[in-house]
Structure prediction request, 189 residues.
Amino acid sequence: MVDAQAQVRPGGRSAKVRAAVHHAVAQLLAEEPAEALTIPAVAARAGVHPTTVYRRWGSAAQLLSDVATSRFSGDVVVPDTGTLAGDLERWLGDVATDLADPDTLALMRAAIGSGPEGGCACIGDRHEQLSAIIERERSRGGRAPAVESAVDFLLGPLYYRAIFSAQPASSDWARELVTTFLSAARALA
Prediction:
């Protein structure tokens, strides 16, 4: 009798196919406009049959969402400088640097253009990181603004500049944004 557990291959063919497909998406987005990204094109670049890609992801939109979720998860570390201002400045500066990368922008624009699910994939991890920073400040006994206010005031302008502007946000601009946000939050408290 064959043990079912012995047949599981962590990191086996499935992981290799996923990595090859994700890499193919990144390459295609770097070379072509997002509209050229099709399941057959991705499959050809990844060296797999299109049916493999359709079976796993179903559509280009779902594939882009998966790639974006993978790309935007865990790549920016939540700092612990000891102060809310320091944590937000360092974190937002790192996010601004990440969003200035042309490959990152191409993936974001393609994922957002694929539908609401793609947009959520691009921002979900950032929202969790910001929540962690604010909750840490509260656990230190400090007064911290609401997470949604921080998302709107800090991430909104940063993502707007990254996606719609020819002038992405710099780390210095991001730090100024934090200073303005914290001043406004103190004034309203």
Residues 1-9 have pLDDT under 50 and may be disordered. The chain is about 75% helix and 0% strand. The two ends are 68 Å apart (CA to CA).
